[in-house]
Amino acid sequence: xxxxxxxxxxxxKKGATDAKRAKVFAKLIRQVEVAAREGGPDPDMNPSLRTxxxxxxxxxxxxxxxxxxxxxxxxxxxxxxxxSITYEGxxxxxxxLIVEVLTDNRNRSGSDVKSTFTKRGGSIAEPGAVAWQFDxxxxxxxxxxxxxDDLMMAAIDAxxxxxxxxxxxxxxxxxxxxLHAVRTAIEEAGYKVESGDLVMIAQNLVPLEDTxxxxxxxxxxxxxxxxxxxxxxxxNFDISDEILEQLA
Length: 248
Known about the structure:
This protein is α+β, with helices and mostly antiparallel strands. It has three domains: 3-74, Integrase, N-terminal zinc-binding domain (Arc Repressor Mutant, subunit A); 83-132 and 204-247, Alpha-Beta Plaits (2-Layer Sandwich), CATH 3.30.70; 134-202, YebC, transcriptional regulation domain (Alpha-Beta Plaits), CATH 3.30.70. It is built from nine helices and ten strands. The strands form three sheets. A four-stranded antiparallel β-sheet has the order 3-1-2-9. The chain has a four-stranded antiparallel β-sheet with strand order 5-6-4-7. Strands 8-10 form a two-stranded parallel sheet. β1 and β2 (96-103) form a beta hairpin. It is globular. It starts with a helix and ends with a helix.
C-alpha cells in the first residue's frame, strides 16, 4: 500500500483538533448531501449514500446531523447545487496527484487548487494525464488485533481483493461495488471496521527516499486537503515507515 495511504492512516489515528474536526464534518456532510440528491434518500437503494453515510458515522458525525443533511438534500427545496470536479497534477519530483472536489463555485475551487499546487512547488496537469495511473477501489481499515487468516476467510469469501498490514490495522481492498458486502461480512464475523471508503489506488508507486522530497510532497497533499472544497487527495508515492514517523 502506498505511502500516501499510510500517511492518511497516521492522521486518522492521531485524531484532530476541534477546528479540524469541524472542517472534516462539513466535508462529509457535503458528500452525504450530494449522494442523497443524486440517488435518493434511502441508503438501502442508494449505494453511494450508504457508503457516505457509513463514512460519516466512522468519523463520529452525529446521526441527527446526517439525517438532517439527507432531508435537506431530498426535501425538494432549492438547497446548494454541488458540482463534482477532478483535478490532476504533479507534486515536486514528479509524483502524480488526483484531487477530488465538490463545489458550488467552479472558478473559486479551480483557483484555490491551482494556486496551492504552484505555491507548494507542484504543477497542474491536463485532464487524463494522471488518472490512468489509478484504479477506483473500496478500502476498509480493520482492527489490527484480528488474526490475519480469520480476517482473510471472512473478507475473501465476500469479494475482498487484498489484505495488508498497515501500522496497527489491516487494510482490506475491494472492488468498488464490493465494499459494502465485504464490510458487512467482516462485521458479521465479529471484527471491528475502523473506516471504509471508495478511494483511488495507484497502479505503480514512486519511492520518495529522503526526508526533503517526502516533506515537500506531503506538505502539498496536506495543503490541498485543507481546502474547503477538496474532498480527497490521492498520490502514487511511497514513503518508508521510518521517514513517515519522522514527519508525523
